[in-house]
Amino acid sequence: MRFWHFTEQSYHPAWDKTTDPLRIVPPSSMMDREVVADLFHRYLDEYRLADELGFDIMVNEHHASMTCMSSVPAIPMAVLARETKKARLLCLGVPMANRMDPLRVAEELAMIDMISRGRLEFGFVKGSGWELYISNSNPARMMERFWEAHDLILKAWATRDGPFSWEGKHFHYRTVNVIPGIWQHPHPPMWMPGSSAMSAKIVAQKGYTLASFLCGHQAKATFAGYRKVYEETWGRECPLDRLAYLGMAVTADNQAEAERRAHALYAYWSTVPRSPAGTFNPAGYAPVEANAQAYLAGPAKQMSMGLMPDGKPLPAKPTLDELAEAGLLFWGKPDQVVRQIQRFADQVGGLGHFLMMGQGAYLDHKETADSLKLLAKEVYPAFKDSAPSPEPIAAE
């Protein structure tokens, strides 16, 4: 299993200054430019430390959010392409509904792949429902744009005898010619997120790595759905490196400190619902089938942000032990974290990648660095021998 360090690069100093939503509408006047600059440098320092410790790196993208300042992931990715030496650099990902210019996305990422000499991995995401209020995109046409952008970007990367023209339904380019091209031809390893067997289906058909985010044991059904379709599509057993899970993780060399750090990290969880009411699932955003399944599942599972091993929703006010049992927050002394991650991986049928939120919320730099060092020294070795190849893996 490969470990990837991830942080949402939050502006957490503002979280307790308002009771209003932290996404779309928080007053930008709460931002202090000196603090913002310090935080950006701190997060980059922690990514560089992760590289030195042997972890891979994941960066994401959100907009108008106090919980994630990474609105242009190409910028930290470009810095990291230069400053890191070995880490694979995963951009997971670019919400295509919020990007009106997919050719620019192809060009930005191609440069990052060149600068890093082929360490880029890339994920297409459709983006959160609330972000559509920022791009003013029509959710009913979102997936049409998504797949057209997907096809255009892949063709732009794969074409080495350009230029070509693109006259699609949503995008029109007289000349597409990505210069200087991309290092990993025809394209870097590809990822997509998915939170249900239904959403995993298309990812499996493409052969991309499926990433399930902070959903606890919902991942078990999601991964099972992926494996089934993968094996039907490709006629072979699903490789372990096609399955990834994102969870929080923190450790310390004594129980009291580990518990204190776990509480500091878990504070991120309380921000998840802090978006304006009615923006999570705008009409047309989720497929009709998904909305029907959610309705049949009932309000408890609809509102739940994770499932316990028995399939029941996470308690409304979970304990740290319940969070570990659910696979949402792995915490404790290093030996405890090893057991928790291994247990979760076994229960969901195996994992190839652990997307590790090793920093979040109020976990400060010293605590984050110390935890990362312990995770690298005493946790990662228990899983690293079974890690998929760090060499670039061309998607089918």
Automatic annotation (TrEMBL):
SUPFAM superfamilies per the UniProt record, alphabetical: Bacterial luciferase-like
Which intervals hold domain Luciferase-like?
40-346
Keyword list, A-Z = Monooxygenase, Oxidoreductase
Any single GO CC term annotated in Swiss-Prot or TrEMBL for this entry: cytosol
Annotated GO MF terms: monooxygenase activity; oxidoreductase activity, acting on paired donors, with incorporation or reduction of molecular oxygen
InterPro entries for this protein = Bact_Lucif_Oxidored (IPR050766), Luciferase-like_dom (IPR011251), Luciferase-like_sf (IPR036661)
Origin superkingdom? Bacteria
Q: How is this protein named in the record?
A: LLM class flavin-dependent oxidoreductase
Q: Which organism is it from?
A: Sphingomonas crocodyli
